[in-house]
Amino acid sequence: MNHLKIGWAGLGNMGTPMVTNLVKAGFKVKVYNRSTEKAVALQEKLGVEVARCPKHLVEDVDVIITMLTDDAALKEVYEGPEGILSITLPTDMLAIDMSTVSPDTTRQLAALCEAEGIWYMDAPVSGSVKPAEEGQLVIMAGGRPEDFERAKPIFNALGKASYLLGENGAGNYAKLAINTFLGITLQGLSEAVIFAKNNGVSPEQLLPLINDGPLASVVSRSKSQSIINHDFTPSFPLSLLAKDIRLAKAQGMDTPAGNALSDTLQEALAKGLGASDMIAIYQYLEQQYVV
């Protein structure tokens, strides 16, 4: 039985299965979500405690974990009128943010927390809903080595591997790099399918060749049926990938493939595809380039 009590904020597509795995590993968990329906549903399913606001979330817990949509949501949870930092917290509490946000935001919040005697880590994850459900995420952390060691039992319940990459912000930089690669991979896969389709080779014919060959990847295999079936039901919305690439550009990403990806994502958003899955990159490019 793990004796740490965790306060968890954010029950999106990733947060809910991650909390489930923490409970299965024996942690006591209190949850907060801006829309209370998800929190109440998880309470009924797992017996977790529900907090009415972030301030209430951090009462009587040992570790705070946030898994939120963007920088604005994260700052609101920490700095809002009923935010985490609106009350006096126990010295030496550990705060872990697993969102994909700017390294600048991480460093700002880390400084605010340190002034209150709280130790802050950025620890975003690589993996989507299925790896989250299976406890197979890869966790990339920035912060103090001693805090990384304190967090290891939590990370072990959530993922198959965790890495300390440096000081606060290092995990964010790694996550933005990985999501840049992810987006470029999706665009490259989409362009290959479109080129083949324009020359008489269908997606149904091409994608098995890719997935049986040396260029196969988890991404190509997981998105093949989406392309073939034109099924763009979101597991990771295109709008969130676009947000991550905007963050990468704000941190200095300025390379040919990255800039092309950024342009594609912005154009796809303008076409109203933000709520679709990230492989809607293919949907947008198909509309523009299939002859």
UniProtKB/TrEMBL annotation:
Keywords: NAD, Oxidoreductase. The active site is at K175. The keyword Magnesium does not apply. The keyword Coiled coil does not apply. One of its GO terms (molecular function) is oxidoreductase activity. Pfam families: NAD_binding_11 (PF14833), NAD_binding_2 (PF03446). Residues 5-164 form the 6-phosphogluconate dehydrogenase NADP-binding domain. Residues 169-285 form the 3-hydroxyisobutyrate dehydrogenase-like NAD-binding domain. This is 3-hydroxyisobutyrate dehydrogenase. It comes from Chitinophaga filiformis.
